[in-house]
Specification:
Layout: E1 2-8, H1 14-28, E2 35-41, H2 53-61, H3 78-81, E3 84-87, H4 90-100, E4 108-110, H5 125-128, H6 131-152
Helix pairs in contact: 1-6
Length: about 160
Amino acid sequence: MIKILFVCWGNICRSPMAEYIMKDLVRKEGLSDVIYVESAATSTEELGNPVYPPARDELKRHGIDCKGHHARQVRPSDYEKFDYIIAMEDIHYRIMKDRFFGGKGDKITLCMDYSSHPGEQIDDPWYTRDFVIAYNQIEEGCRGLLKHIKCQTSQF
């Protein structure tokens, strides 16, 4: 089982969008039994909250359901549990590496590193109010990540 964790600040916009976009892509590829996807936050601000309504609406426009999501925070044990830890911005990478993972960061990459714009940040739509751009960037990153995983894994 390949395990992916998407991470943003509050786990109510970008990282759950990535989680459910990736779950949808994985399901459509028939890989749900070999790829597990989850998401988390670096902060405690939104713990227990569902996906933010405009993010939920954008997912719904693409036929993706995110019912049942409740924001959770990254845990130190996530470093060992997950094969891929995908941050939305550099700040998430630094927080996870320094605060949660004891200086380890080799499993952490940016979502856009798997796109045609590696290194690019995905701006927080909570502030920009542009959930369409966030969705499009996240989807491109997820498609690229799935392609990368399929190329790296002989079982597919």
